[in-house]
């Protein structure tokens, strides 16, 4: 799979091919990366890539033309590489959330390259986004100094799901693979600082272990990401036993919230 990244700081992306799963997958030729610096497509002596916003306001806005020329150069390189098609994605806090489902879909379609545009400063001229970008993506409800970290997160997430990049079972059992958060994990020793591994995990009873993991996954998801529970319910993925457990956990959470509220009122 090919990634083209439009960035003012191409050196930042180097870590992806230097460590861990992405390094191994890169060495095995499962993915390639090409960076494009908008400053290389400027025409003035100062290599200007930004200017003050029309209408006033703080910060600077990235110019449309250097970014557009960088995208066009990347598209030409992709055509030379015989890449059938590409999708241009701008990393921005105003974008749609990056989800596991979208990551898996991109990884499954290796014929489509991803071109990632990393914004900086106050943002990017909207005309460039309207003309050259297919979609805007956000990695969370917060603001970073630029889109590079978001681009690296997206690439890492996609590469993990490329065929052969990692064991299939590892990807199947992790958070979001089944629409829920992953449950707690334990390893040796069995007793650490007076804390013991749950007995069921040492029992060797595979059915009980599977049920325990399912229950813990449901508990964690309800406490931390209840919207995922509702989505699973709409998809018809919850069993009667799941609903019974969730009802009990929900009641526990309500009792805790009530106790906290009462203590706060007393203070």
Written account of the structure:
The protein is an alpha/beta fold and 267 residues long. The protein has two domains: 2-168, Alpha/beta knot; 191-266, Trp Operon Repressor, Chain A (Orthogonal Bundle), CATH 1.10.1270.20. The protein is 43% helix and 16% strand. The chain contains nine helices and ten strands. A five-stranded parallel beta sheet has the order 2-1-6-5-8. The longest helix is centred in the C-terminal third of the chain and has 27 residues, at 240-266. The radius of gyration is 23 Å and the shape is globular. The model has no long low-confidence stretch (mean pLDDT 93).
Quick rundown:
The protein has 267 residues and is α/β, with parallel strands linked by helices. It contains nine helices and ten strands.
Task: List descriptors.
three-stranded mixed beta sheet; 9 helices; 267 residues; 2 domains; Alpha/beta knot; five-stranded parallel beta sheet; Trp Operon Repressor, Chain A; alpha/beta
Q: Name the strands of the widest sheet in spatial order.
A: 2-1-6-5-8
CATH class of the largest domain: Alpha Beta
CATH homolog superfamily of the largest domain? SPOUT methyltransferase, trefoil knot domain
Low-confidence stretches: none
End-to-end separation: 59 Å
The level of helicity is: 40-55%
Q: What is the second-level CATH architecture of the largest domain? A: 3-Layer(aba) Sandwich
Number of helices: 9
Indicate the radius of gyration in whole angstroms: 23 Å
Q: Which fold does the CATH topology of the largest domain refer to?
A: Alpha/beta knot
Strand content: 15-25%
Secondary structural class: alpha/beta
Average of per-residue pLDDT values: 93
Number of beta strands? 10
Question: What order do the helices and strands follow?
Answer: EHEEEHEHEEHEHHEEHHH
Per the principal axes of the C-alpha atoms, what is the gross shape?
A: globular
Report on the biggest sheet.
5 strands, parallel
Number of domains: 2
